[in-house]
Amino acid sequence: MDIVQRSIDSTGGDRKFDTVNTGDFVNLLLIDQRDTISLITKKKGFNKYWTSTLSIGYANTTTIYNNGRAVIIKNDSVREIIDPLELEALAFSCYISTDYAYKKLGYKLTRLDDEKFENFDCYAVLAESPLGQHSVNYYDKKNGKLLMIIYPSGNRSINTEYFKHEGVSVPFKVLMSSHQQGKYTWSRLEQLDYEPPSDTGWFTLPAKGSYKAPQSFRTGTFNFLSNNGSGKIVRGDQGEVESIKDVKNTKDVKNTYEIKWMSDNDYLIFRLKNSASPPTNDNIEYRKCRIITWSGNKYYCQYLTSSYAGGTAVFEKGQ
Predict the structure, then answer these.
(1) What 3-state DSSP class applies to 246?
(2) Helix (H, G, I), strand (E, B), or coil: what is residue 179?
(3) What is the pLDDT of residues 13-38, one digit of tens each?
(4) Domains and CATH numbers, the chain
(5) What is the rounded distance in angstroms from the CA atom of residue 285 to the CA atom of residue 304?
(6) Do residues 158 and 174 touch, judged by C-beta distance below 8 A?
(7) 295, 264, 86: which is closest to 200 by C-alpha?
(8) Does residue 77 contact residue 213 with C-beta atoms inside 8 Å?
(9) How far apart are CA 178 and CA 28, in angstroms?
(10) What tens digit of pLDDT does each residue of 158-192 get?
(11) Overall pTM > 0.85
(12) Residue 89: its H or E element
């Protein structure tokens, strides 16, 4: 359909979306002015998808999709996803571009009556998946980009702003509203990398059932690589010392933190920014960490800092 093709062309084009099939996305979600959640998404090769949320007030949830199979990790358990509709939606999420996914996955596209909103004049297109899932998509007549999606539940997502990076435009600010009156979430893209470090361990599916990280990760010497830097950590029972090289300013930074394990998979590291000042909220720096998966001496984690900077990191324990 010409409307969808125009959107593809305006955000990068087929050739670009053929080659840019890997990416790490760090988003910050503002939940109805009640909490702030870090949402991390990883995509690789059109058949792998990883998404995880972390906040202070909400339980962590991670979904991993790998070539037709998927699991969801919550608290200390793993559940296999077997619903064909859920698996179809996850396969769709492997694509960086919504419209490119419609095209490549064979969605049926039907032109609907045009819609004119207060600030936008839009084309409307019904998209139906091979298994019958459908959504209504609205495209801005002026620039051709996808502006809004309305789902069968009545929930909607509105792409209020796009960001262009390496020739590909993706939604930068998204307003997501619930069919329940007054419920809304703002999503803002904080970080984007189309060439993240190659480690397919992020997409390894753990076995279903109880899921608790090994006790051996609580102490030792670790090398780590994150989306914000790399370095070395010496961890003991009460705290850890980090020697970090920040990729932004290439300076070596050394910090000492206390550590508190809240569960087998969750820990908090914290310190005073100024040791001579009282331990007020403004003077405490912390990082909440969640061990998502692991293999041997290596674990994969998501973190959220006291300044709401989210990210992921791979830790490998030395022998």
Answers:
(1) strand
(2) coil
(3) 999 999 888 999 999 998 766 678 99
(4) 2-193 (2.50.20.10), 212-317 (2.40.128.120)
(5) 11
(6) yes
(7) 295
(8) no
(9) 18
(10) 999 999 998 999 999 999 987 666 678 899 999 99
(11) yes
(12) helix 84-93
